[in-house]
Give the backbone structure.
Amino acid sequence: MTATALLVRFFRRNNVEPFVRLPHRVRDGYGLKRHIIKEMRTQGVTLLITVDAGISSIEEVHEAQESGMDTIITDHHHPHAQIPPAYAIVHPALSPRYPRPHPSGSGVAFALVRALEGTEEWEGHKEDLCLAMLGTVADVMELTGANRTLVTAGLTALKHLPAHAPIAKLCAQAGVDRSRVTARDIAYRIAPRINAAGRLEDPGIALQALLSGESALAHLGVLNAQRQDLTASLLADVLSSLHLSTENSPQNVPPLLAAASVQYPEGIVGLLAGKLTEGYGKPSIVACIRGDACIASLRSVPAYHVTEGLERVEGLLTTYGGHAQAAGCTFPTKNYPELIARLLDDISARVRPQDLVPTLPVDAVLSPQNITRELAQALGHLEPFGEGNPEPLFFLPNVSLSAVRTVGNDSRHLQCSIGTTKAVGFQHGHLRSRLNEPLDLLCRIGLNRWNGRTDVQLFIEDMRHTECSKRNAASEMQNAQRILHS
């Protein structure tokens, strides 16, 4: 959607109103389809430009060619051995010398627009930068190299947009203070709102919000709330069907987590797969069953390239595509048992069991008295944080919590103090009754600005009872200290 918005804005600046076709998850599925080519032919289209798609659309591009259409593909997804017969392909992986990390689909579109503009700045340059930044963060691209430069520039541009700009209005609706916006705000508060449109209704709603704002912005807010409620209820169903809970030991969880149901909407399966992989450290696949066909999303861990895994079972699939740790596919429902069995065998053959255990890295060991506002401000210079440049996590051993209470809807969040430092644990409210003993905490360090005051604040990522892990804690502290001193 951000890549589409970039090209629409470019053509409008040049007095051309393009025909835009965003695939609908339910009616169209993913990527370029033959019936979309036919629609374009009836609209008199002679030049087709894809964004964030098309690198695997060999038959579709050939049909467009036969219909008298030139096709320019802009994409960044994993290319197959055979590429489409397009007029031109703009894809970083097709140039061996193109530096890594590769850009997102919106990053590719931004590079194309910059080349077409022929200058480093143009009318609407700041808003275009914001769109490219938004797509880069939302697609979980590695935030090093050119991606880091782009996201840094986009976050700076966002701070200086006029209040009437659509993206500025979107930030206001999400409660994001643009003067202090971070990549984390984009990932957790802005991107989900945009994606909610395509997950639950029509992606055109989000595109309209990005281009003009107006009533589409309010619609996004409603859809995002619905998306949150639906994901929570369906995740409980998935966990129940897999007999999983927070008490499961990683050793008792299979190397691949798989679930399929007629009740899972196409737009939510990716979120469910992401929750499974994040929570249990295993590759996952969640599929919605639509009669004779299944539409699935997959998520994975760094040790397993899930799109290459799909390549090895492509005989069972109708379509597939994606990245190293996120992919999608469609396949006949009858193939589901064999597909799961073969993916399970593929993972078991290529990944060591110790690489399928959910872990959180410790960057340094701290005691509560070391946590200062000056430290939090210094850490801020390492922004933007994200894939490839994770926010530092600090280990606080054997601490006690005070003033513990739950906050938020359904008391889902935890609020407390560690010494004189305020702390919050998102999604940890259910642990309230188990926090009376000393704990080992894993935290991020940030700043809380309220009523003109700026204080250091901890964000609790994980915790455990100290008494349950004395032997492990000693060795982990030594390892963390070695990391700190190096």
Summary: Confidence is low (pLDDT under 50) at residues 480-486.
